[in-house]
Amino acid sequence: MLTGKQKRFLRAKAHHLDPIFQVGKGGVNENMIKQIADALEARELFKISVLQNCEEDKTEVAEHLAKGTGAEIVQIIGNIIVLYKESVEKKTIKLP
């Protein structure tokens, strides 16, 4: 689990990032979870955009993705989800 201080640090780091995944009408599927897990290993921290036509609630989408990938939900703001997972091989973010 991330502490409040770590979440603040990660939110600041994620601020300038653009969403690299979008969750739309189809919602979350296994293929998407696999792609996000691979991207998390490469980047550790990124944003996912939940589109207006997504039938699931953004909180449910975030929890589903976090559970499927083993990531931590850093923040849900508007329709943007910020996820973090420490990389095994490409660790670049040093948490406070």
Q: Overview of this structure, please?
A:
The chain has a four-stranded mixed beta sheet with strand order 1-2-4-3, with helices on both faces. The chain starts with a helix and ends in a 12-residue tail after the last strand. It is α+β, with helices and mostly antiparallel strands. It contains three helices and four strands; from the N terminus they run H-E-H-E-H-E-E. The radius of gyration is 13 Å and the shape is globular. The model has no long low-confidence stretch (mean pLDDT 94).
Helix/strand layout:
Layout: H1 4-14, E1 21-23, H2 30-43, E2 45-50, H3 58-69, E3 72-77, E4 80-84
Parallel strand pairs: 1-2
Antiparallel strand pairs: 2-4, 3-4
Measure the end-to-end span: 13 Å
Q: Quickly name the level 1 CATH class.
A: Alpha Beta
Number of strands: 4
Radius of gyration: 13 Å
- For the record, the count of structural domains works out to 1
| Proportion of residues in helical segments | 25-40%
Main sheet record: 4 strands, mixed
State the helix count: 3
Low-confidence stretches: none
Order of helices and strands: HEHEHEE
**What portion of the residues fall into strands of 2 or more residues?**
15-25%
In the CATH hierarchy, the third-tier topology is known as Translation Initiation Factor IF3
Task: Give the name of the CATH superfamily.
Answer: YhbY-like
Structural class, by secondary structure, is: alpha+beta
Strand order in the largest sheet: 1-2-4-3
Q: What general form does the structure show?
A: globular
The overall pLDDT average reads 94
Proper CATH architecture: 2-Layer Sandwich
Pfam family, one: CRS1_YhbY
Organism: Neobacillus bataviensis LMG 21833
GO molecular function, one term: RNA binding
Protein name: CRM domain-containing protein
